[in-house]
What we know:
By secondary structure, this protein is mainly beta.
Amino acid sequence: MLNRANKILKLQGLSCVIFVQPVTGGIMRVLRIIFLSFFLFSFNIANATLSTIGQKGMLHTIIAGNEGKGMIGIGGYGLYWQSPLDFTTMTTEYKKGIGNYFVTYVPYNFIEAFISQAAGAYQQERPKERNVGVGDTYLGLKFSRKLRSFIHWGIYSSLRMPTGEQDYGSGTGALENDILLTMDLTRYEVTPFMIHFNLGYIMTGEGEPETYEESNGILIRSAVVIPSHIFSPFIEYSTYQATGMEDLAFSESPILLTPGLAFYLPYGLSCQAGVDIPISKVKPYKRRAVASVSWVIPLKELLKPFGARTLFGQVLDKETGLPVGSAKVRIINSDLPPKDTNNETGIFKFKNLSDDFSTIMIEKEGYKKLVKLVEIKKGEEKSYQFRIEQIKEGKVSGRIIDKFSSKPVVASISIIGSDENFQTNPDGRFTISIEEGISELTFTNDEYESYRTTVNIKKGEEEFLLVKMRPIEKRDKLIGIIYFESNKAVINDETEEIFLKAIQYLRENPGVKIEVGGHTDNTGGEHMNLELSRVRAESVREHILSQYGVNPEKIIAKGYGEWIPIDSNDTKKGRHKNRRAEIKIIWVD
């Protein structure tokens, strides 16, 4: 059946189609056709992609297997031929192309479903005529199973609906049922090929057909292919034997020999091309070009751009590698509620993330907080492992006393780099847990000068401190700060109030001196900044001496360079604060 060629799909592997229904022709003729089909079975070659309507197969022959669960195939199949001169109608150069556009899907490993729509175009020179049109619509299913490790069998059924326009459709509905067989003989060195065979029956519903296309009939298709990863040569044999026309001999029905080549490209793309060569007495054309292109991809990959972002995560102990249960997981700046990890597996899951990049924060008592950025694009499901580190702690205990009277001092204790704060008890004693390693502690009391010290804590050990704090009456006191423009040491007019306050304090307390400390930001080199800070300090000192008549021995100028910033040098505002001169009252012991 020549018009049936545009209904068959292109597959991978080897398939044999056989499905026999009661026929209206003579029994002997039917048996002869079946016998010939098995005889010709050994002469066919085929590899695999998607075929005419969407099944896995060659240009005409269907393969018994499929691409696997969840796979979707999209493609097209086309026929093109040119008719010779017709001396009866004097028409010539009649060119025609017919094709199918199909979608196929494998919901389960043993079932494949498809839908296909045919279309066509033709051109005629004498008389001049061109036209395009829509062909028939096909729906079908294929059931396939493995019989042996190298043999697959299947049952294929399709329904042709006569939705096509004149010249592009069959004009009749049809039900086709086939049995498929595929044999993979590549395991044997002497047979490096695969064989596919289809035998089936098509019912058109026409009681008195005028042509073989309208008749019920037996389908025979077979193929042999020499498979490879890049391209595979093949040859196919196919025929449609009309059983509803008693006077039509086997050789008078369409019989095609189709040599061709299949190409397999990256990303699931493949294409096939071949030539249909009529070898029966019915030869409406010398030869006909046949080609197909298909794309096979998992459905979930195809739907990714339309799907949700999903994060699968597991929290593990960084040292032991064991799951961490009951850890709190949050998506920062998200409306999604936090999740607790599973107690046994440490697993958590977030659906419907709003952005491609999300910041994950994981917290668990006894562990360091972990913040990590993950990337999940729309439609993706990604898995991440997060390893959190245990907090290894030791202890620091001690007592705080007045430096001069040795009386207990109640103070606040803070750890530099941490948000935690602690308080001593009324007698100045304290015990705090601190993470293993070097930490810097600060002790503060409004009536005392703050005290800072460094401790080196080891896991499970305790260190004792005796902290002596100086009363605020005799501590160094910051009077004010003078700010400078970048790379300058010019004093602005708004600083006089600071100078007056410093001079007054100096006169009221003979035991003190004024220290002017110059500072810079971190722009420029170290040596240049050190010299600039010294110049700034000297500029302030000379201004005080010249304006207020202070004893030069009472004013000290020091340059500290860039080493004592009071704000971040990463911002413009922070650098401005660091370009300064500090005026302090210092006690002389």
